[in-house]
Amino acid sequence: MEFEHLKGKLPLEAKKAMRWQSIFTHSLWLLATAGYFLLVHFFDWWSIIGWISAGLLVVSFIIYTIIAPNVYMNVYSYEVTDTQIDVQRGLFIWYHTKIPLVKVQHVETLTGPIFRKFDLASVKIITAAGSVEIPALVQRDAEALREYIARLAEVDDEDE
């Protein structure tokens, strides 16, 4: 079954930011693995655990730094209409979430240090039943989308 993508796609900067997040995480993993090998040298521990960790590190790096950002860009889409918010995501399991605007209680933008470097932010839409995030939008687009959803859903701006 083929699914039709929605209009909103993630910007190309999102791919770079995802890669840098992965590189940072894998750098920490590499330091931990190197530290384990140092301990193996001094305390005569089993080195097989370090080799397993190094092998998993390489496989994880390839998947999450090289492959996943490309795939994620192709399988994530969103659309905001006058009555609802649609978010589609997934590779093997396809999630299609529809949120009626009347159910929206709170809308916020989120950004971390890596996203700030690439001028990106995420929009988080919160309802009584949970939340949905539209990740890695250009900062000004994320803020405009937050304001647009808040206006349509008649949500008060809590920053004021």
UniProtKB/TrEMBL annotation:
InterPro entries: YdbS-like_PH. It holds the Pfam family bPH_2. The chain crosses the membrane at residues 20-39, 45-67. Residues 76-149 form the YdbS-like PH domain. It comes from Priestia megaterium (strain ATCC 12872 / QMB1551) (Bacillus megaterium). Keywords: Membrane, Transmembrane, Transmembrane helix. This is YdbS-like PH domain-containing protein.
